[in-house]
User: What shape does this take?
Amino acid sequence: MKNILKRTLSFLLSAALLCALAAVPAGAAAGFSDVPNGAWYTAAVKDLTSRGIMSGKGGGRFEPNSPMTRAEFTTMLAKTALSEEELSEYKYRGNFSDVGGGHWANKYINWANDNGIVSGSGGKFNPSKMITRQDMAVMLVNYSRAMCIELPPTTSSVSFADSGKITRYARESVEACVRAGIIKGDNGYFRPTDTSRRCEAAQMFSAFLKLGRAPRFKVVRRRVGGVSVSGVSFDPMDFTPNVVMGGSRVNGGESVGSLIRRAGAEIAVNGAFFDMESYAPYGTIVKNRELVTTFNNYSPQKSAIIMDGSGRWSVENFFTYVTLTAFRYDGSEKTAKEVAVNRRPSRPTDGSRIIFTRAWGSRLGFAPKYAVKVDKKGFVTDIYHDTDVEIPESGYLIVQQADRQYQNEFISTMAVGSVIDKQVEYRGSSTQDIKYCVAVGPRLVKGGRAYGDSGTYAAEGLDHINNFSGDVRVCMGVKPDGDLVIVTAYASLPEMSKVMVGLGCDSAVNLDGGGSANLYAGGLYFTGPRERLLNNVLTFR
Assistant: This one.
C-alpha cells in the first residue's frame, strides 16, 4: 500500500512540474512568459525580481513594455533601502493629498518623501502618472545622495541629439547617470520626456545597483516608534578613529567643515558638551591613551563613549583619578591626588594641582605661583614662580595657581632632579585601557533596554538641555556585535532611548545636540553643517 501511495505522489508531482514548465514558453526567462531569453533587458529583470525589488503583473507576465508609473519607481527605491517590516512604519497620511493611507504605495512614497528623494507639486504626488526617463534619472541621483552611494564617472560626457530637450532641473542628474554608465541612450537619443517602460526602468536601476559604489558604512533612514531617524551604522574595525580638537587645543573652536577636512574623516560627529564662551569641554577626553582633559563634575554618573586598546567600544561611567608621586634624592616622597589635566584655574586663589600638556597650547597663557617642568622620562628639569611658562613638546607642566591650606608642600618643596610618577585610574570603568574617550551623556540604553529619566539626567548634570522636548539630537550606540550606530532625529531623550533600542543597541548615549548637532558621513551631512564652532569631534577614516 505504501509503495502505491509513493508512486501516486511521485506521478502527481511530476505532472505538476510538467504543467508548470509548460506554462512558460521555452524561450522565456526570469519565470515570465513575456521575458524572452537574450533580450537586452532580461538580465536586469532577473536581477531585480530575484532581489524582490520588482515583480510581475500576474498571470506569469512581467509586461516589459508597459509604462512605469511614479509610484512604481518610487516603490523600487524604497524596497531597495528597507524591508517590508521596516517600511510598515511609513504607513500614515503623508504630505500628498492624492496618496491617502489606503493607497497601495503609501508607505513607499512616504519613505522617499521623508528622505528628500521624491517631491510633488501643488500638494500632490501624482502616483499614477507615467514617469519620464529624465525624472527617473533625477530620482536615482537623489537616492544615491541620500544613501551615500557614489556614482563614479567611467565614461566621458555624451551629447545626445536631443540633449536640448532635457529640462533644466534634470540636466545634472542625467549627466551623472551618463558619466557613470547607467544611461547609454538609444541610437544617439536620450528621449528625456518619453514615458519609461518597465524594461527600461529595470535596465537603468539594475545598472545603477551594479555601477554605484556603496560606502563602507550602512546608511540608516527609517522610522522607529514613529520617530524619523537618519544616520549610519558600521563596524568600527573597518575604520581608524580619532578625537579631533578645535584648533588642535583643549579650549579651541573650529568649524565642523574645517575639522572634517583636517582629519580626512569619512564619518564625523560632534562629541562632548562645552562652554560656548571659554570653549572648555564638559567632560574627560582621551586621545590615543593620553588625557587631553579631565572633568569630574557629576562623575561617576556622567557617561562616556570609549574605545579600549582592543578596538572594543562601550559606554562607561567613571571618575578620572590622576595621582602624582614625587620621589626625591633624600628618599622622601610626596603625593598629590585628584590632579586635574588641562583645566584653567577657576580663580586667583585656586590651589588645584593641574597638569598641562601641549594639548593646551604652546604656553600656559597665565602666570601661576608654581610651575614644575617634567620631561618625558619623568624627571623634574625646571621650576618656575609667578611667570607664564612654555609647555614642553614632550613631558608636561605641574601647575598650582596659589598656595593650598593642606598638602601645599608637594609643589612648594619640589626640587630639580626629582622623579615624578603619574598614575591614571578610571574608577568605575570596565576597562583601564582607554584609548579614546569622549564624555557625553546622558545614557539612553543600558543592557539592551531603554534607560534614564529626569533623575538620571540630572545626576549626569544634564537636566537643562530640554531633555523632554523634540529638539535635534545626535545619539551614539553600540550593538552586541560591536557595530556602532550614530543617528540624528528631532525627538525627546525618552523617545531616543526607544529608538536606539529599536536599532538594536545594547548601550547608547546622547551626544551634544542643538546648535552643535553635526553628523557627517560620506560627503553628506545628516544634520548640519551648523555655524557654531565646535570644540571636539569624533571622527572615523
In short: The chain has twelve helices and 27 strands. Residues 2-23 form the longest helix (22 residues). The CA atoms of residues 518 and 527 lie 5 Å apart.
